[in-house]
Specification:
With 280 residues, the chain is of the alpha/beta class. It has ten helices and ten strands. Strands 1, 2, 3, 4, 5, 6, 7, 8, 9 and 10 form a ten-stranded mixed β-sheet that branches.
């Protein structure tokens, strides 16, 4: 719409509602109190309209549509989502898929605001419908010549004796809880966000790290991965606002995961971990 058409449409809406919804005295675009109050209902209307359009265009079969998915970073984008989306594309080649990476909190907000229909998040999420995709286990990341690399399983208390490169990504709360439960304080020498940066710092002898298994590539030259005792895990799942109000494309993906869960074929977390610790 042109600026003029937008202005006319806005004035018509305000006339129909009997109140201003945009504060014209504010710098930039700012809603009035009434505008803020009706915004969630407007989002509901648009979400329902998208479902109606998607259902109508789908016709007798799911031939077209758009599926918007939120991914909470490398733990889902690197290993979990790709095989799921490959299966979906083979079944529904006419559906366009758009994946956006954000933090867990941002994905939950985008689901509530209807910016996406499906999100891969850390569980549990009490205000969302969800299905489990994988169990994500923490692993020690070490250079091959490190003393802890000689162990099959690394005691959590032994990690405190070495400089730690802490991840600032989504698994940090799980790592912090692991140390707290062991009643030890790690010696953190670096705090990094990017997984590749952490792997390279460890490879170059700057310290050791603890990362969730799902963010780790199956092969990374110059590193070894070891299980930690006691084991610390987090659950990763597919979430939506209401599974009974999904568009045809989102419902097809939801059903695909439900069927795969029933047959135990979603994502083999134990196989992935075994491949990592056995790759040294």
């Amino acid at each position: 719409m042109t600026p003029s058409a937008t202005s006319h449409a806005l004035k018509a809406l305000e006339k129909a509602l009997g109140t201003d919804i945009v504060d014209r005295n504010a710098k930039g675009v700012m809603l009035t109190h009434a505008g803020e109050a009706i915004l969630p209902h407007v989002r509901d209307i648009f979400a329902s309209l998208q479902i109606v359009r998607a259902t109508a265009s789908a016709g007798a079969g799911l031939k077209t549509g758009v599926l918007r998915i939120g991914s909470h970073g490398a733990s889902s984008s690197l290993n979990v989502l790709p095989p799921i989306l490959e299966t979906f594309r083979r079944r529904y080649p006419g559906v366009d898929i758009f994946v956006t990476e954000k933090t867990d909190v941002e994905i939950e907000r985008d689901l509530i605001e209807r910016r996406i229909e499906i999100g891969v998040v850390a569980l549990p999420k009490e205000n969302l419908d969800f299905q489990i995709l994988a169990i994500d286990e923490l692993l020690a990341v070490l250079p091959p010549g490190h003393p802890l690399a000689e162990l099959e399983t690394v005691p959590v208390k032994a990690l405190a004796d070495h400089p730690i490169i802490m991840t600032h990504a989504g698994s940090q709360p799980v790592i912090a809880r692991m140390f707290a439960q062991a009643n030890i304080k790690p010696r953190i020498v670096h705090d990094l966000t990017q997984i590749l940066s952490i792997l390279e710092f460890v490879r170059r002898g700057q310290g050791i790290s603890i990362l969730a298994s799902l963010v780790l590539p199956r092969a990374y030259q110059g590193l070894v991965f070891r299980r930690i005792n006691p084991k610390s895990v987090r659950r990763v799942g597919l979430a939506c606002l209401n599974e009974n109000r999904l568009s045809p494309a989102a419902r097809a993906l939801w059903s695909q995961i439900r069927d795969a869960n029933a047959h135990g074929t979603v994502f083999k977390s134990t196989d992935h971990v075994q491949a990592l610790v056995g790759s040294a």
